[in-house]
Amino acid sequence: MAPVRLLLCLLNVCFLTVLAGASESIGPLLQNGDFENGTWGWNPVWAREPGAAKAVLDTTKPHGGTQSLRIDHIGPKDWSLARSVNLKVQPGEIYELSAWCRVQGPGWHGLLHSHPPGAR
Predict the structure, then answer these.
(1) What is the pLDDT of residues 82-112, one digit of tens each?
(2) Cα separation of 64 and 10, whole Å?
(3) pLDDT tens digit string along 25-43?
């Protein structure tokens, strides 16, 4: 099976509020979402099959800055890259998740959010 490469860059989480009928963005809440500070703030990449995925900083294909994070994945099962620190959010506020991803080879990608048990 050919390896799937996923290039992650600019994983930005923006906070939106509504003021007088217009939305106003106050900018990214996620620190190091562009991987310009390496993998600070991120857990090591996880794969269901041990050794099937590795994360590598890549300066050859940046999106907006000087580098991105490339995930090299071989194998048919899933993998995950997650933040090491949860974002603090406020009930009733609207948050927008956006990401820039590039897939090379067969495969797909998705953006998933989750919240701790008991959170609303």
Answers:
(1) 888 877 777 888 877 778 888 887 777 777 6
(2) 7
(3) 666 778 888 899 999 999 9
Number of other residues whose CB lies within 10 A of the CB of residue 107: 14
- The span from the CA of 17 to the CA of 55, in Å, is 34
Bridging pattern class, strands 4-19 and 79-80: unpaired
Cα-based distances in Å from 115 to 37, 86, 110, 112 = 25, 9, 17, 10
This prediction's pTM: 0.71
In the chain, % helix, strand, coil (3-state, to 5) comes to 0, 45, 55
